[in-house]
Specification:
Elements lengths: L15 H5 L4 H10 L4 E10 L2 E10 L2 E8 L4 E8 L6 H11 L6 E14 L5 E7 L4 E6 H6 L11 H13 L4 E7 L6 E7 L5 E7 L4 E8 L6 H7 L7 E17 L7 E5 L5 E6 H8 L2
Antiparallel strand pairs: 1-2, 2-3, 3-4, 4-5, 5-6, 5-12, 6-7, 8-9, 9-10, 10-11, 11-12, 12-13, 13-14
């Protein structure tokens, strides 16, 4: 859980007209599972890496947010509007220290990745990270994989660890705890090894307040989404797939005016780390290319 390669999706360049009337079953089912009771509207669609991706507006009592869903029903990214008092204190502290205040128009996003561990000829180990449409986002070497394993983390048994464990098990019904460990991403965060009856393990990273940093879930090889499976084929021609994971990472996003200049888009991880700060105008120009 050490490395978090975040894919920051954007919501421009969509073809709105055809998608407004089209809700294919996989997309409809994904929306209902993720946003029960929310008002949703498909604004448009675009093709990324030969995969149709639908842009969805989500309206809850806390405001509006966005999601991107593949035609297979997998989330490239999904958001949830956040009220000011719902922001993680560590992220709020970063914003207050950097900008002097915390804005109220904050969105929380989670982005999806798949990690595939392969053994190449000669026994060398690699972990390849893909996004939900099959684009390669990063490659870890064997030593990085070792540092990301539970064996590299220290066991935790303090009061915060017990609260984090309770939250993780509640988040993942039908699991039991296989132990709690101190996270190396941020002080006060823990990695809870949650286990299903079939032996599948989810490494769930959160703090004692229930703030989620991300999670990594073991996945059966036969359940790899088609875009990822197709992207993986060139890598496994002479290599063996050892393990597959589905991962989600969380971050907060908002627009912040800096003096009299144009506003900037700021993205912050739950532990207070800054992911990016970029001018809104510059982002818009880049997205049109």
């Amino acid at each position: 859980m050490r490395r978090a390669c975040i894919f920051l999706a954007v919501f421009t360049g969509l073809v709105a007209a055809p998608a407004m009337a089209q809700r294919i079953p996989e997309v409809e089912s994904a929306i209902k599972r993720r946003y029960p009771g929310a008002e949703t509207e498909i604004l448009g669609r675009k093709t990324i890496n030969d995969v149709r991706v639908f842009d969805v507006k989500v309206t809850t009592r806390d405001g509006e947010s966005r999601a991107q869903i593949t035609e297979g029903g997998d989330f490239v990214l999904y958001g949830q509007p956040k009220k000011l008092d719902q922001l993680n204190p560590m992220a709020a502290q970063t914003l207050q220290g950097l900008f002097g205040s915390v804005p109220s128009n904050i969105d929380m996003y989670r982005t999806t990745q798949y990690a595939v561990d392969i053994e190449a000829q000669g026994g060398k180990q690699f972990r390849i990270h893909f996004d939900a449409v099959g684009r390669v986002r990063n490659v870890d070497n064997g030593n990085e994989i070792d540092r990301d394993s539970l064996s590299s983390l220290k066991r935790a048994n303090d009061a915060g660890a017990r609260e984090a464990e309770k939250f993780a098990i509640g988040w993942l019904p039908n699991t039991t705890s296989g132990g709690v460990y101190h996270s190396e991403n941020a002080q006060g965060f823990y990695v809870v090894a949650c286990k299903y009856e079939n032996g599948t393990t989810v490494l769930f990273e959160c703090n004692h307040r229930g703030v989620v940093y991300g999670y990594r879930q073991e996945l059966e090889k036969g359940n790899i989404p088609a875009p990822v499976q197709q992207a993986l084929e060139p890598f496994v021609a002479k290599a063996r797939v050892k393990q597959v994971y589905r991962m989600e990472f969380e971050y907060f996003e908002f627009q912040q005016p800096l003096g009299k200049r144009e506003p900037y888009t700021v993205r912050v991880r739950p532990n207070g780390d800054i992911l990016s700060i970029a001018p809104v105008v510059a982002e818009t120009a880049a997205e049109k290319q």
